[in-house]
Amino acid sequence: MNLLLTANDDEVDLDLVVHNRRMLTPDIVALELRANDGALLPSWAPGAHVEMNLDNGLSRQYSLCGDPADRQTWTVAVLREPNSRGGSSYIHEELSTGAKMQCRGPRNNFPIEAATEYKFVAGGIGITPMLPMIGAAEASGTPWTLLYGGRSLESMAFQNELARFGDKVRLHPQDTHGLLDLATELADPGPGAAVYCCGPEPLLAAIENHCESTWPVDALHVERFRADLPDLADASPIEVELAQSGMTLTVPSDKSILEVLTEAGVEVDASCEEGTCGTCEVMVLEGTPEHHDVVLTESERESGECMMICVSRAKSKFLKLDL
Predict the structure, then answer these.
(1) Residue 232's pLDDT is what?
(2) By C-alpha distance, which of 236, 244, 302 is closest to 268?
(3) Which residue range(s) make up the domain with 121?
(4) Is there a contact between 294 and 237 (Cβ–Cβ < 8 Å)?
(5) Same domain, yes or no, for 140 and 215?
(6) How far apart are CA 18 and CA 236, in angstroms?
(7) pTM reported for the whole predicted model
(8) Which parts of the sequence belong to the 2Fe-2S ferredoxin-type domain (predicted)?
């Protein structure tokens, strides 16, 4: 039996409390979040994430890695980044059991689609969105395997949860096994099979390079941690017209479209301002966007019908936006 699980577009703002926290590895903490008033949480599908608005003023997005059937609890796992800009370090040091926060979600930019077989590939904390995907594939009876890499066994979370799946799961710590052997693991693109991958950029670049030459178009689905931010040193000014108001603004090379609109008093929904959450998506009526987000699919990018104005710019000198 195949499955098709779609994204949940009904994201809401929620007041949540840290019901429980536990260290999965020396650098990864799992947080169980519940509604302050005990109400049921919105439903979600595998691949979804939640945005956590922290008391230090930062907003960060984390994949939901618990059971979608559990409407009482949302679970996220957070890696303490060695070069944290304040998000992961705050969560590790300040968010104890009982801490309250505002969250928004769920949002799904990485939905699992119907396939005859799933090849899941995870690197490090990229295991988090794979867990509910694996659960859905297992429940539906769709064949699947997981190749899971990390720096060392000690650094790899959720090993106990994955152990019950036996040889469907292959752990591949780099310190003892080297880099993932994608050529072997992904050698046979069976009809209707799909690859889902999440992890650090070198892994995603390697798997994209491999699948481009050996797998059918659209068989590979990836989720990135960070956007490919533009090099503003070589950027050119952009003229942006807002169709609803008729206002025309000049976006200089050292500012984003979102920054210029905000300075002009134009209200636009935005959150991460890093091209990862999808909140600032705007329809493009004229012109050719230059995409730098990690939200849109390749086909959505090629259509040029929408863009994330927090990081994306323009290949043309003029853009007309539906604002």
Answers:
(1) 65
(2) 244
(3) 117-223
(4) no
(5) yes
(6) 45
(7) 0.78
(8) 236-323
